[in-house]
Amino acid sequence: MSFYLCSLPDDSLAITNKDSSQWSVASATSVRARFFVLNERLTIRDIVDSTLVGTFVTLGTIENIDTERGWQYLSCKYHNKKVMPTTNVDDDNRPLFYCNTCDKEHIDVIPRFKLIVHVKDDTGEANFLLFDGNAQVLVRRSAAELYDENLDEDLLPEAVSDLFGKRILFEVSVDADNIKGKSSHYVVRIATADRELIEEFAALPVKQVLMLQSSYDISSGSGGLSGTPLSKRKSQDEQQSSLEDQHSVNKKLFLKKVKGE
After folding, report:
1. Helix, strand, coil % (nearest 5) of the chain?
2. 3-state secondary structure of 110
3. Per residue in 161-180, pLDDT tens?
4. Where do the DSSP E strands lie in the chain?
5. What is the rounded distance in angstroms from the CA atom of residue 222 to the CA atom of residue 182?
6. What residue ranges in 37-153 does DSSP mark as E strands?
7. If we measure between CA atoms, which residue out of 134, 138, 160 comes closest to residue 147?
8. Distance between CA 201 and CA 203 in Å, rounded?
């Protein structure tokens, strides 16, 4: 079966390439800003534990790819949405696919990447979802090309399995479903295997989560960050202050009574 092959779809990276090997300067600058300026840098453990909706950047190694859910899907060439096979054929006995968005049947459909990659770093692991544009940048091939070459749909094409063990920089979204536990994967907004960017990112100092230190922590020279969150420590400090105030009042009343005697 031959498929209509189109250019990089709208959900692709912000990166644009003037040819197969040279990235545009403006786009490269934009990508650098997203990894080093615009977004907060987190470890994978921090991302999994995050209670904030937002976009974050991290560095991790692809350990595996979910093959049970497949590595690609057939899409409508007009909407990039998934199409469903039907039992109908056209006049030339070619299979027709139904697009719910178009509410029509089509002959020409486009295979697109949808990779759920298992990513790991020194702190933890998570599943990241790569859609077509980002996956193409990493694989360096289109899903349509690999689909036509791949004889067994249950097996990963070699160009995809070559991602195993590679360190990748990811910009990922944490949404409400991730926080509530309704979604087990994080959508990748941008990904790059650029060696210079990865080495520069990996060389950054380890970022520590900001916690409040009490005056005791500082004066005692413990040096470590308190393991108690700011709000909780504030509540504890208020309670301690209240007890100290009450003790002071009681002491004054006791001294006044003694003098009166």
Report:
1. 35, 25, 40
2. strand
3. 999 999 999 999 999 999 99
4. 40-41, 54-65, 72-76, 84-89, 95-99, 104-106, 109-120, 125-131, 167-174, 185-192
5. 40
6. 40-41, 54-65, 72-76, 84-89, 95-99, 104-106, 109-120, 125-131
7. 160
8. 5
Phi, psi dihedrals of residue 115, rounded to the nearest 5°: -105, 125
Residue 88 CB contacts under 8 Å (≥ 6 apart), including other chains? 95, 96, 105
Note the CATH number of domain 25-202.
2.40.50.140
Q: Where are the domains of the chain?
A: 25-202, 215-260
pLDDT in tens, 225-257: 333 333 434 444 455 555 455 555 454 444 444
Q: Token match 């990493």: residue?
A: 138
What is the longest distance spanned by two Cα atoms in the chain?
114
CA-based nearest residue to 173, from 209, 204, 131, 121: 131
Q: 90-116 b/e with 16+ CB inside 10 Å = b?
A: eeeeeebbebeeeeebbeebbbbbbbb
3-state DSSP assignment of residue 1: coil
Distance CA 131, CA 73 (A): 10
pTM of the model: 0.68
How far apart are alpha carbons 143 and 205 in whole angstroms?
A: 37
Q: List CB contacts of 87: < 8 A, sequence separation 6 or more.
A: none
Q: Give backbone dihedrals phi and psi of 16, rounded to 5 degrees, phi first.
A: -125, 145
Q: Would strands 95-99 and 84-89 be described as parallel, antiparallel, or unpaired?
A: antiparallel
d(CA 187, CA 116): 9
